[in-house]
Amino acid sequence: PGIEVGDEFQYRMELNILGMHKPSQGGIDYMKHGDDIVATSIVASGGYDDSLDNSDILIYTGQGGNVMQAKKSGQEYKPPKDQKLVQGNLALKNSSIKQTPVRVIRGNQKAALESSGGDKKGAHYVYDGLYLVEEYWRELGSHGKFVFKFKLRRMPGQPELSWKVVKNSKNLKYREGLCKLDISEGK
């Protein structure tokens, strides 16, 4: 309650605190629905090979398989592997069957980096509204392993969010009284 289409957030932890998206890193949040799990929200930020340009249809790549892991010094490299239909991917599949709405939060890594002077700590997230998962499929990803793709369509009757405008935004807007930069007040 109280969150509207177009509301902006600087940090993923804000989404967690508000109950919009619990995982601090994972892109798919889900809950139990009867004997199954269904997706409650996704964060689409372009980290995978997602199609984010259409404001009403989103092609979202599933999670898992070490698809995005880059070799970092001091860490063991794990090669990519096929994604499995478990956890968040299974929840999105079940949402497709049960037609449960999924909250979509769009992230803009480019705008976040530009507005923060290259600091990856702050990101820019915008609540885009409720979507339904229309279909899903498995395909060979750009890294040579299988990934799951999910086609989500925005539910009608919601306020329009011009994603192209948000995507090109370089400055976060803070709303007085709703966003406090230092909750410890200097302590």
From TrEMBL:
It is found in: Chromosome, Centromere; Nucleus. It comes from the Eukaryota. Residues 1-154 form the YDG domain. Signal peptide: none annotated. Keywords: Nucleus. Pfam families: SAD_SRA. Its main location: nucleus. Gene3D superfamilies: SRA-YDG. PANTHER family: HISTONE-LYSINE N-METHYLTRANSFERASE SETMAR, HISTONE-LYSINE N-METHYLTRANSFERASE, H3 LYSINE-9 SPECIFIC SUVH6. This is Histone-lysine N-methyltransferase, H3 lysine-9 specific SUVH6-like. The lineage of its organism: Eukaryota, Viridiplantae, Streptophyta, Embryophyta, Tracheophyta.
